[in-house]
Amino acid sequence: MNRYPAVAALLCAVAIAACEKNGVQDITLPELPGAQIRFFNFGVNAPSVNFYANTTKFTATGSATCSPAPTDTVQLRICRETGAEATTGVSYGAASVASTGMYSAIAPGTYTLKGTIAATTDHDLAVASVNTTIEAGKYYSYYVSGFYNTTAKTVEAFIVEDPIPPFDYSVAKVRFVNAISNSNPMALIAKSTTAPNADTPIGGDVPYKSAGTFVSVAPGSYDLRTTGTTANLPVRTGVTFAAGRVYTISARGDITVAGTTATNRPFLDNTTNR
Questions:
Q1: Does the fold of domain 167-274 match that of domain 31-162?
Q2: pTM above the 0.85 mark?
Q3: How far does CA 96 lie from the centroid of its chain?
Q4: What are the 10-residue block averages of pLDDT along the chain, 274 residues in total?
Q5: What fold, for 31-162?
Q6: CA-CA-CA-CA dihedral for 35, 41, 47, 51, to nearest 10
């Protein structure tokens, strides 16, 4: 009648012995070899685009409707099940991933990164391209920039690495990217709104198609301005930097445009890297 307690005791002894043999189990998983990338459409007067790495599409907006309906039977079925690809794409001033700190995974390798027209007219025509090598474990940002040439249907583009700093929950990390093609090198200055006399330079002068280094900034609210030899330098007020976060401030637009309302005016874009 004491058979079951004896069996239970034996099983416990076996389990304890096994645990003692491997008292500390290594469950560390290897790091994934992939890289991360995101895309920006900052080309002045550029059409809305979809982004590709070689032949792999990384961005496309969807439509819940299926109109006009494809004539091919298979494509019609797919369209009815998943909807049709919308022709809006990533518009000027927008990024491929809207969520805070998000990127798209990409395998390491050599790529032609492209921005292609999303509209029905000239659909999938590549208007901007950059040949580059993506390395494992790194983060990247690809920018469509400069001025769209309506005759040649081309616009400039460039890519920068995003060397995300280690976690530091006592400060924010901020850097500056210059995507204004007709500007001279510019520097970014952050002025605290709670301590108006405190200026924090975010690195030094940054030329077009370049990124500055990440700089530690005390958490809080800031007014941002740029310095340089060009008129109509972009500014932005009331930007909040949170502790532990990493930010990229990118300048876009046409440096010759004055005022605060034109779509193509010089503008400072604030995007969270983490």
A1: yes
A2: no
A3: 7
A4: 48 46 45 82 96 87 54 58 65 78 91 94 94 97 97 98 96 98 96 86 96 96 92 94 96 94 95 94
A5: Immunoglobulin-like (2.60.40)
A6: 0
